Amino acid sequence: MSIIRLILLTLFAMLAFAGNSVLCRLAFQQTSIDPASFTAIRLLSGALMLALLVQFRRGDATVSRKRGMSAIGGNWPSACALFAYAGGFSFAYTSLTTGTGALLLFGAVQATMIMAGWWAGERLTVRQTGGLLLALAGLVAVMLPGLSAPPLGAALLMLSAGIAWGIYSLRGRGTADPVGATAGNFLRAAPLSVLLGGVLLAQQQLDGLGILYAVLSGAIASGLGYALWYAALRGLTATRAATVQLSVPVIAALAGLLFLREPITLLLMLASAAILGGIAMVVFDRRPA
């Protein structure tokens, strides 16, 4: 893979990840769509896009044989983690700013994956331990009571969404055909989101522009974005893959400022430096303790 193609794939994937945050905030700030409906439409759109990608890819017999690509896969435990992430993400963003939500989400994702490695026997060095404590301190600082602190309920929902996405990512490591597996997980998670919408039917509010944002979030930022990311992963080391994702909260915060006129507070800047810097200390130091 050429370096230019790798850079472009990685850049578009990071923009897509940040785009999910922006589209979700746009939907809840500018339209009347409810979070349950947004989640269902997002997952259904993502499932359709990924299924089409799998079908298109299977149609190329040469590529399929070369890469060992198979039919749609996935499993129910991963689908449930995906549903928990998507639902928590949508409900949290009804009250969080774009940058704060992305920071809490990706901070929780990385912390979950780091702690899972520790639980599996991967011991941290002194530097890694310090980095993890610094990142956790940043997360606590974001949630401290104050004028700029996010609502506690929404913050906890986003942290839960990040933990669910971390679990989903951990379950997907080593998957032979990640795009096919993701398509299957989206197809399984979509009915769960429809069921949630049915339970909360009394609160349902559909809006044309809100539906469009949800479709863009599911089909483009999620479905196509994940496909681009998996393509980029073939040229990235594990450390680089973890590190480049640290750019997403920064991109999301800047996009929130540009498209939603959301302020970037001093607390958010300091907490971002602590969280992203602490995580970087962990992922850049892989030496055994």
From TrEMBL:
Quick check: keyword Transmembrane in the entry?
yes
Q: Which UniProt keywords apply?
A: Membrane, Transmembrane, Transmembrane helix
Query: What is its membrane topology?
Result: Multi-pass membrane protein
Single GO cellular component term? membrane
Q: Does the keyword Lipid biosynthesis apply?
A: no
The membrane spanning regions, by residue number, are 36-56, 76-96, 102-120, 132-148, 182-202, 208-229, 241-260, 266-284
* Compartments where found: Membrane
InterPro entries cross-referenced by the UniProt entry: AA-Vitamin_Transporters, EamA_dom, EmrE-like
What SUPFAM superfamilies does the record tag this protein with?
Multidrug resistance efflux transporter EmrE
Q: Which residues form the EamA domain?
A: 7-143, 154-283
Protein name as annotated: DMT family transporter
